Task: structure prediction
Amino acid sequence: MIPKLIRPRRFGDARGWFSETYNARTFAELGIGDVFVQDNHSLSVTRGTLRGLHCQLAPFAQAKLVRCLSGAIYDVAVDLRRGSPTFGNWVAATLTAEGGEQLYVPVGFAHGFLTLTDNVEVHYKCTDYYAPECEAGVMWNDPAIRIAWPLEGIEPVLSDKDQLLPALGDFAGQFDYDGTPLAPLES
Result:
């Protein structure tokens, strides 16, 4: 399974709009049969806040379904599946509250985002429960990965923990390669 960009339909009228952001049948038709068990919601006050690149290892590995509730983010998924011909490659999408886009990040990928505006709220569904003993990740600016973060000359705001994440070459996690290499996100 590889990351997928999802654009839920919005139905609008004079009152505003309505959107179905998750439906198990619709997602199954997209090849996403995951069962989500936990929802998370974050607020990042300052533009340029960078969260990531995070993953959770077995036995509590998580897939995520990410969307932006206010503001905008540059959302990134990095392939961490050993044996994948696209190991260390990444895809990204801009997710906005206005557009309602979502990024599905399967198990085997690190996830991170950069806030493009102030006061950004992000919501994401997870397929397993938070397990601090299984937290892992890779550094956001690893030269082996070369993510083109749209920082526009600003220094990102990072947590102390995110500043200590290892380089890709030192990543100790094991994720299975399922035979599907990473591909560009379809829009």
